[in-house]
Structure formats: C-alpha cells, structure tokens
Amino acid sequence: MATIGKFNTLPVIALTDNGAYLDAGELGEILLPNRYLPENCQPDDQLEVFVYLDSADRLVATTEKPLAQVDEFASLKVVQVNKMGAFLDWGLPKDLLVPFNQQHTKMEVGKYYLVRVFLDQRTERLVASSKLDRFLDIWPAEYQQGEKVELTIGGKTDLGFKAIINNSHWGLLYNNEIFQPLRTGRKLTGYIKQQREDGRIDLILTRGGKGKVIDFSDKLLAYLADNDGYAPLHDKSSPEQIKRALGVSKKTFKATVGNLMKKGKITIEAQGIRLK
User: Fold this and answer.
1) 118 in the Ramachandran plot: left (φ > 0), alpha (ψ -120 to 50) or beta?
2) Is residue 187 in some structural domain?
3) What Cα–Cα distance (Å) separates residue 102 from each residue in 78, 80, 86, 134, 178?
4) Burial category of 54 from C-beta neighbours within 10 Å (exposed 0-12, middle 13-18, buried 19 and up)
5) Gene3D superfamilies of this UniProt entry (predicted)?
6) Beta strand pairing status for 169-174 and 201-204?
C-alpha cells in the first residue's frame, strides 16, 4: 500500500492522454500527470513517485522532490497567510498549510520556520506544525557516548544551538565546540558527547579521540587537492585562521596533520603543509 506524503515505488497500470495511472493498493489508482512521465514509460514499469493531495484534494503522484516528507523536519519559507493559516513553500505546486492552531508563534510572510510535516488523520491532508515538542519522544533517550546520530539544527540559544537527534529528541551543541556555520533546519551528522543525569543530551559535531582524526583526514586531503596541494597553515597559525579555512579546531588540525605526516601523505614546510 502506498503512503501519502512519502515516496513510493508503484507499478504503472495504464497510459492515458492525461498521464499514467499507478496502482497504489488500498488508495486506489493514482494519476501521474504527463509532465512527470519518464521517457518511454510502459505499463508494468515501476516508478518512484511522491504521493500527495493536489489543490482539488485529489490524490496525485509526482516525481518532483519536496523539501520534506511526512514525519520529517525542515526549515520552510512562508509565502502566504490567510484565514486558514500560513502556507509554506516546500517545493511542490501546492503549498503546505500550517493551521493557526499548529503555529508555535504567529507566522509571517517571508520568514522561515522549522516545522514537522505530518498527515492529519481527521482530514487526511498533509499539513505542518511548528509546535515541535509534540512530535518528540517524551521518554528518556538511550544513546551511547560517541554514538553517531543524525541532527536537524533548531534554534540558537545563549549556549549554542539546539538540535533534534534522529527526529526523536532534543540535544545541544555548545558554541565553543562549533567550528562551522550552522542554520536552522540544516541536517548533518553529529555524535553524542554525553547524556546528563537530568536527561539532557550534549552533542558534538566531530567524533572524539582517534575517530576525530580519521573523520577530518579525508577532508584535509581534499582541501589540499583543491588548492594546488598546499595550505598556508601551520603550528603557529591562529585558531581563528584554521577555523575559517577548514572549519575545525586547532587541536583537531594538529592531530590530523601529525597523523597524515606519519602515513607519508603530507609534508610540513616552513609556512604550511603540502600534499605528497
């Protein structure tokens, strides 16, 4: 059975003047309009399509990719506000509604908001909510120190950035451990730094210890390759220079350089490092 609000792989039943009809199981037959049909499409072909309701509330398929699927978080721009609520641009012809009762604060046209996309069970319509806490797990998390997790960046605080862990829990990235630009809605990989006794979770963007060196080695080698094999960075470079150029701390930079030098992949010169 196909799922509304997600990508599904569905078989082509028949081709018509309007497009292809796809078998969506209990949802019935769903039209994929002509403008989305792949070249030389034939009956029984399997097509990966996104299923949603069009402006007439009819189920329809598209090969266009929305900025978020059901049960995902995304930072989306408000393009219209009317008596029904706020409408967000999520990459499809029909904008995504955030009803007034799903707005954490009153939304304004032109601003971006972090929202969760969900299927309203009462109306079977795809909508979004900026009341994020209602979608996160109320039970204590069970993460391990150093565990790799997927993060969605939330709002900025005095201490750093809040981040949603694996679409399930809030965590915190501290300012003094952030070495790259962050923005609300950005998705990236992080690691569990620690889970405190009060249940709150501290995060970090690079793996600690030996893993951190391994994580950054490939990035440093790629940076050198993209810059004619040379970087004017060395032991006397300031932490700010290293952070600006590479997005890591000076400690991580020095450890990685030492590791790569031992492996014979780089050489250290008076004013920088060079790819061998």
Assistant:
1) beta
2) yes
3) 14, 16, 10, 10, 31
4) middle
5) Nucleic acid-binding proteins, Winged helix-like DNA-binding domain superfamily/Winged helix DNA-binding domain
6) parallel
Residue type, 268: I
Q: Are residues 156 and 200 in the same domain?
A: yes
Higher pLDDT among residues 76 and 254, named by residue: 76
> Mean pLDDT across the stretch 81-86?
96
Encoded tokens for 79: 């393009």
Q: How confident is the model at residue 214 (pLDDT cuts 50, 70, 90)?
A: low
Average pLDDT over residues 86-92: 97
Angle at 265 between CA 261 and CA 266, to 5 degrees: 60
Residues 71-76: what's their mean pLDDT?
A: 96
What gap in Å lies between CA 108 and CA 116, rounded to an integer? 17
Task: Say how many residues make up the chain.
Answer: 276
**Partners of 61 in the β-ladder:** 51
Domain shared by 56 and 23, yes or no? yes
Of the candidates 55, 90, 93, 91, the residue with the CA atom closest to the CA atom of residue 76 = 90
In terms of C-beta density within 10 A (0-12 exposed, 13-18 middle, 19 or more buried), how is residue 128 classed?
buried
What's the CATH number where 223 sits? 1.10.10.10
Distance CA 101, CA 107 (A): 11
Q: How far apart are CA 260 and CA 272, in angstroms?
A: 14
